[in-house]
Design goal:
Layout (H helix, E strand, L loop, with lengths): L1 H4 L3 E3 L2 E3 L1 H10 L23 H12 L5 E5 L6 H12 L6 E6 L10 H12 L9 H12 L4 E8 L2 H4 L9 E6 L8 E5 L5 H4 L1
């Protein structure tokens, strides 16, 4: 009532006006919570070769409507580099989020499905109270991605069992790299071979 009436108030022995109090309230508003929705590392600027592979993948994505890609091949062949170049070119089609996650598939202890789900959820809701069970996390994962035009790069997957729980809603594009060869419905698997001698030189 004092504010509405425009009368001065006494706070801590000092007389202050209505405008001063309103300004104080505005200044003490909580800061917005930062999200982490644009995580892609930049591709190498000196990238060369793989023109045919890249053209094939872009055609499949932009013309044929493929939404799940698997780049597969031996370690060190350039799967991650090609995935980053492809993601960079597709990024304008998926402006809401570009998420990157190393699944550590070549390590003794690959990243757990629970940890992977949590990483994506935290990108959208960094302070959310998360459930402990994987099934509940999968529901929350689907919820935060629903309707999003997002791109997910899951690098270094260990196997199909690690990836399948991370399949996003149909509005999102999923790019997977792995040393292992596996398929599941909707996946376009691309086996990478060594570079031709001219490109390698």
């Amino acid at each position: 009532n004092d504010l509405n009436a425009g009368r001065d108030l006494t706070i801590g022995g000092d007389v202050v006006g209505r405008d001063k109090i309103v300004q104080t309230i505005i200044n003490e508003a909580p800061a917005p919570i930062a999200t982490s929705l644009h995580q892609l590392p930049p591709p190498p600027r000196d990238f060369t070769g793989r023109e045919a592979d890249l053209a094939e993948l872009i055609t499949k994505a932009e013309t044929d409507g493929v939404m799940i890609f698997g780049l597969q091949g031996m370690g060190g062949i350039g799967k991650t580099t090609l995935a980053l170049v492809l993601a960079e070119q597709l990024k304008p089609r998926y402006p809401d989020a570009q998420l990157y996650l190393d699944l550590k598939g070549a390590d003794m202890r690959p990243l757990s499905v629970t940890a992977a789900l949590t990483h994506v959820i935290r990108a959208y809701r960094p302070t959310a109270q998360l459930p402990e069970g994987e099934a509940e996390l999968r529901g929350m994962y689907s919820s935060v991605l629903e309707g999003q035009r997002g791109l997910l790069l899951l690098d270094n997957a260990s196997d199909e069992a690690q990836v399948e729980p991370l399949l996003p809603p149909a509005s999102c594009f999923l790019l997977i790299t792995s040393r292992q060869h596996f398929i599941f419905p909707g996946l376009y698997a691309k086996d990478l071979n060594v570079l031709p001698p001219n490109d390698a030189r």
